[in-house]
Write a structure and sequence with these properties.
The protein has about 120 residues and is mostly helical. The protein has five helices and three strands. It has a domain at about 1-65: Orthogonal Bundle (Multidrug-efflux Transporter Regulator, Chain: A, Domain 2), CATH 1.10.1660.10. It is about 60% helix and about 10% strand.
Length: about 120
């Protein structure tokens, strides 16, 4: 299906354009907007996003891949104004420790697997 490109302004892109550029579904974008990670300008039944939204989507996807929850990402991005900078830093430090522990476990498992296959 071809989308008709209708731009509101040179600085704003439609949800379909953002979806195609970021390679995520419009449903995911709507969800991120509903929980406050993305901000849209609504005109009628349409959502329009600024160019920064593509970068935000990339950051969110990366943080999700390395193990952050959407709630933690919201805190890190400053979307939860109740949280202090110390909490954000503490959250990052704890997540880093958790990720390093996971990396260590993956290394141990891969070493065991390599030894097992070397014997074959």
């Amino acid at each position: 299906m071809r989308f008709l490109r209708v731009s509101m302004s040179a600085d704003l892109i439609s949800i379909a354009e953002l979806s195609a550029s970021a390679n995520v579904s419009t449903r995911v974008i709507r969800h991120y907007e509903s929980i406050g990670l993305l901000e849209a300008i609504r005109k009628g039944n349409y959502r329009w996003f600024d160019a920064n939204s593509l970068e935000i989507l990339g950051d969110v996807r990366l943080l999700l891949r390395i193990g952050f929850s959407l709630q933690e990402i919201g805190v890190l991005m400053g979307k939860d104004l109740k949280e202090t900078s110390e909490f954000k830093l503490g959250s990052c430090v704890l997540k880093r420790k958790d990720l390093l522990a996971r990396i260590f476990e993956v290394k141990k498992i891969s070493e065991k697997m390599l030894k097992k296959y070397e014997k074959l």
